[in-house]
Every structure is written in structure tokens, then in C-alpha cells.
Amino acid sequence: MREGTASEAALARSRAGVALWAVAAAFGTYFCMYAFRKPFTAASYGDVTVWGLGYKSVIVSAQVIGYTLSKFLGIRIVAELTPERRAGALLGLIGVAELALVGFALVPQPYNWPFLFLNGLPLGLVFGLVLGFLEGRRVTEALTAGLCASFIFADGVTKTVGAWLLTQGVPVPWMPSVAGLMFGPPLVLFVWMLTRVPRPDGADVEERAERAPLSRREQWQLVVRCGGVIVPVVVLYTLTTVVRSLRADFAPEIWLDLGQAPDSSVFARSETLVAIGVLAVNAVAALVRDNRAAFRFSLVVSACGLVVMGAALAGLQFRSLGGFAFMVLTGFGLYLPYVAVQTTVFERLIAMTRARGNLGFLIYIADAFGYLGYVVVMIVRAVITTGSHFLGWFQGLAAMVAVLGLLCLAVIWRSSGETGGR
After folding, report:
1. Residue 414: count of CB within 10 angstroms of its CB
2. In a 3-state reduction of DSSP, which class is residue 54?
């Protein structure tokens, strides 16, 4: 009896150690990737224009277009890539992104905007490759919540790094590539750590279904079988992606419109609070063993997030909420449904239907349309808006997303009841 108890305790410690190793590796890898993607947004770039449009809007849009195209390519690339090739692909893709940032520095403004497109093109595949090391496990939600917390946290921290480099005298065009170089060595370490994460064991497969690369025919079969849930989830994800991305890419401008000049630490402070809250809430889903119950729990969490965002918008409108609290609460409200899709919704959909599939394929369908929606919004704003105030634009879109998002969640709840499985 004692030997059995000791053996079980040792096994539990081993599983906990693997989980901690995996979440640290995934968090670190994706955190470092953000240093190659986001620091350039910490600069304002003055009154430079391209074709009559604001230069910063153009370079943000260029990167997002490259990132969006990458997501569409990733629907097949991530779904079909074998595990053995993931680590090499990760390092190669991020290396290409860094070379693009060097090109951005070497070519004078405003003619260097195409290099931001080339920077975004490889980086859009990174999330799916990292996710492949984590899915299909009994603790996938907790691991993926850690991964998602990395980009919430890193969004603020890497902007802070970019702003700090500017204060140290690094020229604006060189700041993005220098920030990337700073995170190169830890990136290599974290990718190596990912290669040491063991595959899901038999108990994982029993509870969550086996995950494998999908042929193109199998990809289509999965979409047809679960389309009643997948389509409204993609719509919800697209809505939250648009507003989340606007908030992230134009944070300095929104802070200024709120009446607070952002210092080099405000991004990190606000996003750290958001990351901690979102991580804690979404990780709870890993404690729910029943797949359908966990799926519906994630829908309730998403609805709560949209309500929080709506309350924050009302609080600012009636001047009962300060700028810092507004940014934290809107970030928390937006990221709850956004992260729930990545951690739980699709993961448990596969598990409860026992469908042949992998998480990366479904996430990349959602991501592709999410970033396409953001590109469309950026183009529309450039065409119909001449003012520079981002706050009003953000408030209007966020209010619309809160309402439409709740309607999507109602449709998903109803459709999931008609989807077979356990």
C-alpha cells in the first residue's frame, strides 16, 4: 500500500514537472517572438505620410496583412506539419522576420513599409507550431492559457522595451531589429525546451482524442461535421480579434486620448494585470473533466468577458472610471473570449466529438478570418476617417462587439447541443 502510494506520488510529481516545463517553454518561445513583432508600435513616427495616409497606420496595416496571409497559409501548413519539423520551422521563421526588420532599418522612410509585410508573413505561423506541442492533453487548457498569457504580457513588455530603447538613443528605424536581437538567445533556449516535451500519453488520448496531421480531405470532413459550432465561433473570434488588435497596435494613441501620456512602463503594468486575470480564469477549465461541461464553461467565461467590457465602456462614458482601469478592464473583457477559443472551445470540441483533427487547424481558420477582419477595419478607417482620435473609434467598435459577441455565444450554445459526443 505504501509502495503504491509512493509510486503514485512520484508519478504525480513527474506529470506536474512535465506540465511546468511545457508551459515555461511555450510561454518563453511565444514571448520572445513578440519582440520581433510588436516593439515598432511603441514609436509614433511623427507626421510622415504614405499616399496621404498616416505612416504608422500604413506600417501596422502592412504587418497585419502579412500576418493575415500567413494565417490563411497556416490552415494547411500547421494542420499537415509533422511534429519532428516544428522546432526547425520555428527558428527559421523568426530568423526571416528579424532579417525583414533589418531591411526596415536600412531602407529610408516611408519606402521601408514593405519590410513590415515581410516581417508579419513568417510570424503568423509561430503560434500554431508552438500549440502543437501542447494540445491533446488532460491539462491542455492550463498549458495553452500559459501560452496565451505570454502574448498578453509580451504585448505590453515588448512595447516597454521598444520605448526604453528609444530613450537610450537607438534610432527609431533600428529600434525594432535591436529589440529582436535582444531576445534571440532566450528564444533558442525555449525552442530547445519545447523539443523535450513528451508526447501525450495513453490517458491523454483516452480523454481528449488522438491528435494527428490532417490530409486535405480530413480537414474538409472536420469542417463539415462540426460546422454548426465552428462558424459562429469564427465570427466571435473575428469580432474580438479586430478590437483586441486595435487596442494593442494603437495603445499609445488611445492612452493619449484618455488624457494620460504613456510612459515606458504603463504598457507592461496594464497588460500584466490583464494577463494574470485571463490566465487564472481560463486555466480553471482544465479542472473540468467532462468535455461538454468544460466547453460550455468556456462559453460562460466568454460572455462574462463581454459584459465586463461593456461595463467598462459605460464607466468611461459616464466618467466613473479612470483611464488605467478602463484599459485594464477592456483588455480583460476582450481577452477572456479570445483566449477561451484558443484554450478550450476548439480543444473540447475535438475531445467531445472524438473527431479526427488537431487544434492548430481550427485555430488557424479562426485566426485567418480574425486578422482579415482587422485588415478590412484598418482600410475602412483610413478611407472614411480623417481625424487622429482612436479612442472614439475603439469605443464604437468595442460596443458593437459586446452585443454581437453575446449573440454568437447564444448560437454556439444551441449548436453544441446538437453536436454528438461526450
Report:
1. 12
2. strand
**What are 213-225's pLDDT values in tens digits?**
888 888 888 888 8
Query: How far, in Å, CA of 408 to CA of 406, rounded?
Result: 5
User: What pLDDT, on a 0 to 100 scale, did the predictor assign at position 387?
Assistant: 55
Query: Would you kindly state where each structural domain of the chain is located, as residue ranges?
Result: 13-417
Angle CA 46–57–342, to nearest 5: 130
Query: What are the tens digits of pLDDT across the range 145-195?
Result: 888 888 878 877 888 899 899 999 999 999 999 999 999 999 999 999 999
Report the alpha-carbon distance of residue 390 to residue 163 in Å, rounded.
Answer: 20
- Enclosing H/E stretch for 194: helix 184-195
SS3 65: helix
CB environment 72-81: b (16+ within 10 A), e (fewer): bbbbebbbbb
35 pLDDT band (50/70/90 cuts)? very high
Contact at 8 Å (CB) between 56 and 45?
Answer: yes
CA 97 to chain centre: 18
- Cα–Cα distance between 150 and 24 in angstroms, integer? 10
Segment 384-408, tens digit of pLDDT: 765 557 788 899 999 999 999 999 9
Contact call for residues 93 and 125 (beta carbons, < 8 A): yes
Fold of 13-417: Growth Hormone; Chain: A; (1.20.1250)
Q: Beta partners for 54? A: 49
Question: What is the rounded CA–CA span in Å between residue 323 and residue 392?
Answer: 14
Distance between CA atoms of residues 77 and 232, nearest Å: 24
**CA gap 60, 67 in Å, rounded:** 10
The H or E element containing residue 42 is none
Residue 53: strand pairing partners: 50
Taking only the tens place, the pLDDT of each residue in 302-352 is 999 999 999 999 999 998 899 999 999 999 999 999 999 988 899 899 888
Percentage of the chain beyond pLDDT 70 is: 94
